[in-house]
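pinned: reference chain
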Amino acid sequence: MEAVPSHAELDLAMENINETLNILNSGEFPPSDRPYGELQTELNSAAAGLTTASSEVVQAVERHDQLAESSQRFGDAFNRLLAVSMEMAGQTEDRESQTVMVSSMKSVTVNSSKLLGTAKSVSQDLTRPNAKNQLAGAARAVTESINRLHFRFKNVFA
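pinned: its structure tokens
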């Protein structure tokens, strides 16, 4: 059976998120020669973008055409946040700080995957008891993990 277009987009976004987890587990981060202030500004923007994209996924779950688009935007926003986060992690030489940063990135990654998985499940059965509450909770977990990442990264470079 062929996947519904919105589910194909969700599956692709989840696959990309899982690949990111593998990269994080490798512990190898790209070097960066960009100034910290520039990276921090980009991190702020990327964090806001992923938070917005999370809300869009929740709002689009009832419409398959919108869910496909919001899933793609979520995947793009996730990739942007994790790319700048990995670049910042690559700038720090302190292993303990880098470990804290990686932990924060993994939290965003896992919660993002859970959100998309929940969105897929809910979109298949909108009448399931507590479906929307579960979806809202998954989105809240993404937002909270983004906030923790942002806080921890700010403190590492403070």
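why pinned: The two ends are 52 Å apart (CA to CA). The chain has one domain: 5-156.
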